[in-house]
Design goal:
The complex is a heterodimer. By secondary structure, chain A is of the alpha+beta class. Chain A contains 13 helices and 25 strands. An eight-stranded mixed sheet of chain A has the order 15-14-11-12-13-10-9-16. Chain A has a seven-stranded mixed sheet with strand order 19-18-17-20-22-21-23, with helices on both faces. Chain A has a four-stranded antiparallel sheet with strand order 1-2-6-5. In chain A, a hairpin with a 2-residue loop joins strand 24 and strand 25. In chain A, helix 1 (95-106) runs parallel beside helix 3 and helix 4 (261-274) packs antiparallel against helix 5. Chain B contains 16 helices and 14 strands. The chains are: A alpha+beta, B alpha/beta. Chain A binds chain B through residues 317-318, 320-321, 323-324, 348-349, 352, 355-356, 359-360, 390, 393, 487, 489-493, and chain B through 75, 78, 80, 82-84, 87-88, 113, 116-117, 120, 157, 167-170, 172-173, 176-177.
């Protein structure tokens, strides 16, 4: 064999990264990338055997070069060459821009799936479109791994994806003694790839004892994984598990189950219960949350305090008690009241309670909608009030009566505010963020109902509005007052108060989400 | 003429309880006096309604001025009609009677919403409510006896939540609803000071509740009992009541067993007769208890016969293990001139003070000792009979209610 390396492809994989694919019989091929006046060695060299070379020797390679490490190289992508020992190949005709598509189309499987693994581990960025779609197509079209081979056995026991792209999976992986290695994963959806944070050997799996004679069984062979897509999934989402060394196949590909956000949360919690390391528990949860901060809406003017009001109500009392809550609010507001009830269905008791309240009110009380989702942006013009029913039951009417001089008013049921030194606005604001006390929020529809990514972040609209309030307080766009909290008794009914698992309600889960996002900021 | 509408949660033609009897007695008295009186009762719930009403029938006309409306079932926790149409109908019916005075005896089957809306619809009508028990305070049948069996001395949101296994906020909201409903009445009446005290401690403003005992039909003065009659009566004891656990019949049977098990037999026979309960019903409730032979179960009796039956006995025993408010049995015993031995709590203690005997609640040993202390003691019996004051009759009751209502109306005008 010629001892010189052979260059198959050379393409750009990011602003400053160049990937070279080829093969060489040398165990340490003498590779160098020249760009401008700089000569750079590869920052990473991945080796693998290629079936087309009819050898088990790992002659194939992917060499990654980082142009940002060389002075004056960033602007010289038109003048790049790759040196193999004494031989130099000029990268001409725009190959840096076009070789990726050729690579995806014709590269041998081992090269291509090594490239895919580099994406999965985050060593190189995700491919841009339309190349990304072609990468996905090849992954999905390639032969797939069985769940049990001589080298490994694996399983995806549970894999769920929520409507906003939050995914959680768990299973187990057993490697053979000779090729245990690490397993990595990718999610594939809508022609795009997404890295998946797979935490291997983190869950006890005593039930796999029977495999001990064939694979490397440790008793903790369970894995957990989580991720969040950049955007809502428009089609099916597949998880691709990539065991180490399996480069002739795309991986073990499984369809994820589309579920509601609360079910994703439940799976996060259930898997988290098995994780001994709490940093992994938090990491798994955090991965399902957005990484980018939500931009503040245009807050505009002070709250409009005339005209019909929209009450978005988390009714956390018995269904029949809705009548008393609405009677109280209607008596204070003295204006037409539309109600958006955050319940999955209008039960007979709720319907009768609404009718009863309407019978006793001087102004109309109407049901706008009954759903767990918040109202849409154009569903109301004017004042919007959000609260839990138990909060409105305890709320002093003056809070809704008085003038509101900012775009948002927050009445926080903070028991510490009534203590001699606990009532300052600063401390009230701090505890509103940290302690998550019950609250009422009043604002204009343009602010309260603005399309907001927060609604896809949390399980409850309350958590989204709390986040909005926190943002508004930080920007000086909200006023916060202490509502008398002595004697406050919380409601525990309604879906948001239900336990996702024992002891953790939807509100609790949202609290953890908010804390994890705050910690990351 | 003032039109008075008497409203009861039940109708005595269908169900016989203390509250509805008091209500109906008031109605009959007013009619007898030529007043423009009307009566509205209710069947107790869907099961009872199906027996008496046709498929879509809402009302039974017992007489020209006497109606029984169809009870559709009402959760006593919420005290609201489950369906607003039923509330609408009840409100329309009550409004159609065009009353100047609406006197409610209880509010179950009527509904808090109905009362609020009636108040709003007829602001000039005088609305009266006689509190017959503690349902507004206690969601456990209004008895203030905890699920553990202990007597409850005060309601609180947290205590009630622990007792009935519901979140405390349910009780806070229920209390607010009940207080608001009671606020709708111009006059609140209680047949006992005990009951008024409980409501005051719970949150009704002091002075809002007037204490007026329920009226009984007027009776001729009792003839002087002969020595021989007193001797006979002093050996005879009786129980009047229903076969419900809170009436404490089991306590009485245990006391009888203690008396029966004395090593030294009684020199003079003792008798104990139970009215209102059959032996079979007793055995079903307390299968492990065997009454002695001298304890006889007489079964049901006509309520109008109760006073004459009681006159045959020396002592009427009221061993209830809940507070009772103003037991009709005690009033009837007063009318019969028969002293009472009662549990020393609540309305029983209040209503027998000065002329009755008491024993610690749920203490059969003490009850047995009390019974033995007066058995075959005609002098003690005569002494207690002499201390009995006749119960309030309907004329005095009506005058008292009219006076309070007039005073309240005048006060409201000021």
């Amino acid at each position: 064999l010629d001892q010189e390396p052979y260059l198959d492809f050379c393409f750009s994989v990011g602003d400053h990264l160049v990937l070279v694919a080829g093969w060489s019989p040398q165990s340490q091929p003498d590779l160098m990338l020249h760009a401008g006046g700089a000569s750079l060695p590869p920052v990473q060299l991945v080796r693998f055997a290629r079936r087309d070379l009819r050898s088990l020797v790992p002659m194939g390679f992917l060499a990654l070069f980082d142009l940002s490490q060389g002075p004056g190289t960033a602007d010289t992508l038109q003048d790049v060459s790759v040196a193999f020992g004494k031989k130099t190949v000029a990268i001409t005709n725009g190959r840096l821009a076009t070789d990726l598509d050729k690579f995806v189309e014709v590269a041998v499987d081992e090269s291509f799936f090594s490239y895919v693994r580099m994406i999965a581990t985050g060593e190189i960025p995700l491919p841009l479109q339309p190349s990304g779609r072609e990468v996905c197509n090849r992954i999905m079209a390639a032969p797939r791994l069985e769940r049990e081979t001589h080298d490994f056995a694996l399983s995806l026991d549970r894999g769920v994806i929520g409507p906003d792209g939050q995914g959680v999976c768990a299973g187990w992986f057993l490697g053979s003694g000779r090729s245990a290695g690490t397993m990595i994963a990718l999610a594939v959806c809508d022609g795009a790839l997404y890295p998946v944070d797979l935490m291997q050997d983190c869950l006890p799996r005593a039930d796999l004892q029977a495999y001990a004679s064939r694979y490397a069984y440790t008793g903790r062979n369970g894995w957990a994984a989580s991720f969040r897509l950049k955007r809502r999934a428009m089609s099916q989402v597949h998880l691709v598990l990539l065991p180490a060394g399996q480069l002739a196949h795309s991986g073990y590909v499984q369809l994820l189950e589309m579920v509601k956000p609360s079910e994703v949360a439940r799976v996060v919690l259930e898997i988290g219960q098995g994780l001994e390391d709490q940093t992994l528990t938090r990491r798994m949860h955090r991965n399902t949350l957005p990484t980018e901060a939500v931009a503040a809406p245009v807050f505009g003017k002070a709250v409009v305090q005339d005209g019909p009001a929209l009450l978005v109500l988390d009714h956390d009392l018995t269904d029949g008690d809705l009548r008393d809550v609405l009677r109280r609010v209607a008596a204070v507001l003295k204006r037409p009241l539309a109600v958006h009830l955050l319940r999955p269905a209008l039960t007979m008791a709720l319907e009768q309670a609404l009718a009863g309240a309407a019978r006793e009110s001087d102004e109309p009380i109407t049901l706008l909608r009954c759903a767990l989702d918040p109202p849409t942006a154009n569903s109301h013009v004017g004042m919007v009030i959000f609260a839990r029913s138990s909060v409105l039951f305890h709320l002093h009417p003056d809070v809704l009566h008085g003038p509101i001089e900012k775009p948002l008013l927050i009445a926080s049921f903070d028991p510490m505010a009534e203590l001699p030194g606990g009532g300052s606005e600063a401390s009230l604001t701090r505890r509103f963020m940290a302690d998550r006390p019950p609250f009422v929020c009043v604002g204009n529809a343009t602010v309260m109902l603005a399309p907001d990514a927060r609604f896809g972040t949390f399980l409850t609209p309350e958590a989204s509005w709390r986040a909005l309030c926190v943002q508004a307080l930080a920007l000086g766009q909200a006023a916060i007052v202490a509502a008398p909290a002595r004697g406050f008794l919380a409601g525990i009914r309604g879906p948001f108060s239900e336990g996702l698992i024992h002891g953790v309600s939807w509100h609790d889960f949202d609290g953890r989400s908010a804390q994890l996002m705050a910690e990351a900021e | 003429m003032t039109r008075i509408v008497i409203v009861s949660h039940s109708h005595p033609a269908l169900h016989y309880g203390g509250g509805e009897i008091a209500a109906y007695r008031q109605f009959q008295y007013l009619l007898s006096q030529g007043e423009d009186a009307w009566f509205v009762g209710s069947s107790l719930g869907p099961d009872a309604s199906e027996r008496f009403f046709g498929a879509d029938q809402r009302i039974l006309s017992v007489s020209e001025r006497d109606f029984c409306i169809r009870g559709m079932g009402m959760d006593s926790f919420s005290m609201e009609h489950p369906r607003i149409e039923n509330e609408d109908w009840t409100l329309e019916f009550l409004s159609a009677l065009d009353g100047d005075v609406y006197h409610f005896h209880h509010f179950w089957n009527i509904g808090a919403g109905t009362i609020r809306r009636l108040r709003a619809a007829r602001p000039k009508a005088r609305m009266i409510c006689t509190l017959h028990e503690m349902t507004a305070i206690c969601a456990k049948h209004g008895q203030m006896v905890k699920t553990s069996g202990e007597l409850c001395y005060a309601a609180s949101d947290l205590d009630c939540a622990a007792c009935l296994n519901r979140p405390p906020v349910d009780f806070a909201l229920r209390r607010a609803r009940m207080v608001e409903m009671l606020d709708a009445f111009d006059v609140l009446l209680s047949p006992s000071q005990f009951l008024a005290d409980r409501f005051n401690a719970w949150g009704v403003a002091p002075g809002r509740i007037a204490v007026v005992e329920n009226g009984l039909d007027r009776r001729e003065p009792l003839p002087q009992a002969t020595d021989e009659a007193l001797q006979q009566r002093s050996r005879r004891f009786a129980f009047f009541g229903q076969a419900t656990p809170t009436k404490g019949l089991n306590v009485l049977v245990r006391a009888a067993q203690i008396i029966d098990a004395r090593t030294e037999p009684l020199s003079v026979p003792i008798t104990l007769e139970v009215y209102g309960v059959t032996a079979e019903a007793f055995a079903l409730l307390w299968p492990g208890l065997t009454p002695p032979e001298w304890m006889q179960f007489r079964g049901r009796y006509r309520p109008q016969d109760s006073v004459s039956i009681m006159q045959r006995f020396g002592w009427v025993i009221v061993p209830s293990i809940w507070w009772e408010n103003s037991p009709l049995v005690i009033q009837e015993a007063r009318a019969a001139g028969t002293p009472v031995i009662a549990s020393a709590i609540g309305g029983m203690a209040e209503k027998t003070k000065g002329w009755g005997l008491s024993f610690p609640v749920e203490d059969p040993v003490a009850l047995a000792a009390t019974m033995l202390s007066v058995h075959d003691q005609p002098d003690i019996l005569a002494d207690h009979i002499a201390r009995i004051k006749p119960p309030l009759d309907m004329r005095d009751y009506t005058e008292a209610v009219t006076k309070i209502t007039t005073e309240r109306a005048a006060h409201a005008l000021r």
